[in-house]
Amino acid sequence: MIIAIDGPAASGKGTLGKRLAAHYGMAHLDTGLLYRAVAKALLDAGLPLSDEDHAVEAARTLDPDRLDEKALRGAAMGEAASVVAVLKPVRAALIDLQRNFAARPQGAVLDGRDIGTVICPHADVKVFVTASAEERARRRYTELAGRGVNTTYEDVLADIRQRDDRDMHRAVAPLRLAEDARLLDTTELDIDAAFRAAIAIVDAVGK
Ligand SMILES: Nc1ncnc2c1ncn2[C@@H]1O[C@H](COP(=O)(O)OP(=O)(O)OP(=O)(O)O)[C@@H](O)[C@H]1O
Ligand SMILES: Nc1ccn([C@@H]2O[C@H](COP(=O)(O)O)[C@@H](O)[C@H]2O)c(=O)n1
């Protein structure tokens, strides 16, 4: 079974993806980490985020099982990732990696922006997770503050809005609701309630 989860920044895709994968005994890939890793490779080499050739080279050498999540998290890398994510050759270079991951024998949950629309258009289940920008910013701000990151709610909200705008309006594989995706708005749901709602969606499709 393939479960595709898409949605805007900080909507809870990763949280749900991890929990669904554990629940069903499936592999999980947070595809945002791939774009973050490409951006980090460019920044570490002192190259501009517009350097397509080096970005593609970095994308081709990624191993989905060896992504250093800790080094890739953070608002700055998220923003940088959304800049390299507009580059068509970079997206193309990451397609096979994601589809190969989706074909793992135990099944796979992939979360990102274009999983249900481009990477796995034939996924068994597609969930589009969202919440209001204000609620997403509140959650992300709480998360960052808990980790001791010095930021403000206003800055987090501005970052989320800017990233959503770039992701929804880029020419290639923009973030959008697939026609056959189920919309899961978690604005009024806590993590457990959102998880139960996602399970209900998956189980209903699986029957
Ligand atoms: N339903 C929910 N209620 C409250 N908090 C939530 C909920 N879902 C997720 N969170 C919290 O919101 C934050 C963002 O969640 P998460 O990292 O899963 O989002 P994401 O969509 O994967 O983010 P990104 O787009 O940056 O990769 C985390 O701190 C997570 O614990
Ligand atoms: N399938 C995807 C996944 C991510 N992106 C881009 O990467 C940025 C960071 O992603 P996070 O999920 O870690 O926040 C995101 O803003 C997108 O620009 C993508 O294009 N496609």
Automatic annotation (TrEMBL):
NCBIfam families the UniProt entry points to: cmk
Location, primary (coarse class): cytoplasm
HAMAP family for this protein: Cytidyl_kinase_type1
Pfam families on file: Cytidylate_kin
Recorded GO MF terms: kinase activity
Organismal lineage: Bacteria, Pseudomonadati, Pseudomonadota, Alphaproteobacteria, Hyphomicrobiales
Subcellular location: Cytoplasm
The family this protein is said to belong to: Belongs to the cytidylate kinase family. Type 1 subfamily.
EC number(s) per entry: 2.7.4.25
Record's signal peptide: none
Keyword Nucleotide-binding: yes
UniProt binding sites for ATP: 7-15
Keyword terms of this UniProt record: ATP-binding, Cytoplasm, Kinase, Nucleotide-binding, Transferase
Substrates-to-products reaction catalysed: dCMP + ATP = dCDP + ADP; CMP + ATP = CDP + ADP
Enzymatic class: transferase
Domain Cytidylate kinase: from-to ranges: 3-198
CDD domains on file: CMPK
Originating organism: Flaviflagellibacter deserti
Name the record gives this protein: Cytidylate kinase
Keyword Ribonucleoprotein: no
Gene name of the record: cmk
